[in-house]
Amino acid sequence: MKYLLLINQGDTPTPRDPEAWARLSEEEQKAVYADYRAINETPGVTPGVQMEAPEMATTVRVKDGKTLTTDGPFVEMKEALGGYLLFEADDLDAAIELASRIPAARMGGAIEVRPIVEW
Predict the structure, then answer these.
(1) CATH class of this structure's domain 2-115
(2) Residue 113: helix, strand or coil by DSSP?
(3) Residue ranges of the domains in the chain?
């Protein structure tokens, strides 16, 4: 079964926020990089990409046949999606175990594990 792991950054310090990132020790920063590298090398993982900050988003809706755009994200900034990856696993338990290894899960964020519908 394939799963999409949506990485919700929450309050997770990232290199994009130099002030928050600097609050982590050099050892903690290296551990975050090492964890993501190990996850991306896990069999069955197709790495996704990191996204720009939520304020760079454009939200698109169509109403009465007209395309409407709004600058910024639709969700609260704290809930904003920071990245994703795909994982082909035997079962949900394996996907949950992988999600628990994603640094954002233990540093203020959350990982949504969603099965992919295969047609």
Answers:
(1) alpha beta
(2) strand
(3) 2-115
